[in-house]
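Re-run requested by the PI after the first attempt was lost when the workstation crashed. Everything re-entered from the original request form. Ligand of interest: zinc ion.
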Amino acid sequence: MRRITASNGVVYYRSEMIPCMNGFSTRIGGVSQLTHTASLNLGMERGDPKETVFENLSRFGKALGFDAQDVISVSQIHSTSIRFVTLDHKGEGFFRPQGQSCDGYVTNQQGIVLGVRTADCVPILLYAPSNKTGFSGAVAAVHAGWRGTAGKIVCKAVDYLCELGADLNTICAAIGPAIGRCCYEVRKDFYDAFQSSVGSELTEKYVLPHSNKDNIWMADLQGVNEELLLRYGIKKDRIDLCQICTCCHPEEFYSHRHSHGMRGTMLSVISLSPSFHPFHLWE
Ligand SMILES: [Zn+2]
């Protein structure tokens, strides 16, 4: 994963493993003025005027090479629901009324940009290249909070790509910036729910007892998602893991935990459209 500063000031992370347009936004390079949303807030209901969010989306798009009008990013509900979307769904959530809420998207069409919003939860972008069976490629974007992680939404996205014709051995996954085990304290209800959905082995490996607080555990959601992908058959060298903790770096990322909920929102995007050169200069 590479940290890129675009010429318009937008800072984002890009997975070099994925050859098509993709990126994870930070909070740097936008026009939001509020203390908690400054400056690249990409969430519609965080206190910024609509026009401010649109301007931020347009700047993020200029930095990465996509058109703001092409993005779909609807209400997320901590589910494992994934929508198959086409060009007909462009703009939903930003410029057009949104259809069904969900926590992930998959498409096999160029020209639509899939967007998931996070501020500590794990954003995951998936890419499946074309193959000899006539499959012409597909991409997916997933929002995995603890409920989505426990529900294995990332595996559901892989299933969807395979149903469309992807070859499991060639799928790439980029796991973006999220709250790390250093900061993600969870309680017993989390531990129990997690154990009953992903099993004891994964839970004991990635949810460790706090060193000096009783009944508090530290959870590594990125680690669980990586391991779920590996167990599902994704190759280790095709997983790009960004291990930066959003809560440890509030100057660079919005963090729900760090800000006690008063925060802007980041957007992680992927499209099947080809990527332009990441050092292309804009404006
Ligand atoms: Zn941390």
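Saved to the shared folder this time. Residues 43 and 115 are 11 Å apart (CA to CA).
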